[in-house]
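User: Show me sequence and structure for the first protein, then do the same for the second.

Assistant: Starting with the first protein.
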Amino acid sequence: MNVEFKRKMPTHQALKDMYPISDELVKIKRENDKALQAVFTGDDDRLVLVIGPCSADREDAVLEYISRLRRVQERVIDKIIIVPRVYTNKPRTTGDGYKGMLHQPDPNSSPDMLKGLIAIRKLHMKVLGQTGFSCADEMLYPENHNYLSDVLSYVAVGARSVENQLHRLTASGLDIPVGMKNPTGGDLSVMMNSITAAQHAHTFVYSNWEVQSKGNPLAHAILRGYANKHGRTVPNYHYEDLQLLCELYAKSGLSNPGVVIDTNHSNSGKHWEEQPRIAKEILHSTRHSGDIFRMVKGLMIESYLEDGKQSPDGCVYGKSITDPCLGWDKTERLILELADLR
């Protein structure tokens, strides 16, 4: 192999033993999980907002942002459940560029995966301890999930990973909601197949063990738009798109039909400032169809302290260094408006 074996990494359990969560935090996460499960099984009709920075690039700004979310959560608790995005690894289309806190706990320093593993675990633990939120992260590397499995309440499988068999099998062994995105080319059958695989039981090799998963009935769809053969972005959040997904679910026999709709990426055509308009249109669609209302479980919104984005070596506190995000003022206003519309 043309690789250098630099050092052996600690096992999942070893890292958890080094940085354990308290019994009190275990209880808080369990309650958060129960609330989310009720939404995805249809026992609670509140709207889930998976909201936060495109990538968690620095601990202090992320903690401040999520502390602000906590104050807003208390104002909308009867209509909305907030699940902060703390995305600690960043998929790159070409493999180049900043890959997230897991790779580079300091965006301006060289990659250091051991420091990164420690940094992302400590960040999720601090969010849980300081704000009571157990967060969402992307399962970019299935084998890494266990480093954070006791602090996460939501997992997303990205558009570039959704066809990967290990992602699907790992999702089948989780007991929290797992969203499977439509692929970048937009083929919904790929997404539906991934949900089917995640909801079924499987035997497979994971972390050097033969494991048996039980199937995850909380696996669901994420619509994020797509790019056509000419490279143009095409949204899939409109009423007709949601009707089509309802029909696909009706034919599938899957448990707990559900979708979380990404208001950015190809759904916004990379125009991040369109996210509030898109979010409101989706809620408008839910008011015109009972089936769509029951199927739409939540929204994904990219948001941070400051509007837009900056280069990775930028020095603006709380401004994204990957995809551009809504700033805080627009974010707070949107959350309150969505609660009123719900």
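Switching to the second protein now.
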Amino acid sequence: MEIELLPLVLVLLASFFQGTFGLGMKYMAPLKWEAWWLVHAFIAMILVPICWALLVIPNLFEVIANTDSNTLFMAAIYGFLWGIGGILFGVSVEKTGISITYGIVMGLAASMGSIIPLFQIEGAMNQPTFPIILIGVALLIVGVAVTAVAGVKRDKLKSPEGGTNSAIQMGVLIAVASGVLSAFLNVGFANATPVAEVAVEQYGVGAQNASLASWVVVLIGAFIMNGGYAILKLVKNNSWSSYRASNSRKAYTWAILSGVFWFAALGVYGQGAALMGKMGPVIGWPILLGLALIISNIWAYRSGEWKNAKKPFNVLLIGLAILIIAICILGYANY
């Protein structure tokens, strides 16, 4: 029983990191967004993944070199596509607000990030857990939608005038694109499995630790997009001087901490998913994002974001209850 519970425990821990890392984004000032984001992306997608992987896989770069080049290319491409989704997320927030955007993106990222790897598995529909997984993912989408509705109702109470219809419609379309592209982070991880297999079969690395090699490859592509976009903004806005802003120690600290937490979520999730077997990315991913949504709303409640919004908060509780039921169903599918 302990061995079977360990993967779920790891995914639960990863969810805490995933739901918490965003707190750092509240402390970007006095750095410009692009200056803060470049530091954050480098820590999260390059420094921490490679250092952690090297600790448990000393031959990391040999493992990568001995992996089929097509596998490496596709894994990095999926990471790059996820990076585009992340940029579009920020654009959508400006047009529609965080609640609508977060609900759409989380719902699509969780569902597509689970369903795409599921159908890439040979004989997926013959798996005994197939209908259970579909029910769990469907419920998770409903739960995310209900929490999004709660967020919209809360935002209307705080700013009844809202935005223009055209801006909101465009924002929703961008959010849909962001959600689809955001799913590719997990698709990339699932397709980078051959990298981990090389580490296991040729270098005797345990499956749990070998998953870190897969993330290194995927996140190189992710950093090319995120880091490249931040640098373009730094050049375009001529905001390099932001790095020398006074009283910026807190901003740097949070950029680093949020970067560590961000990859801690993926690294620990990857270890849990690896222990689940080939169905790990299918079951673990929606659990990760569903729980992260619950945790992020707990932080939002503690910071007073739901103050004086009793009715929307009750709707939120319904959404979170549905998410918990969905997560339990997916956990049962793994068991």
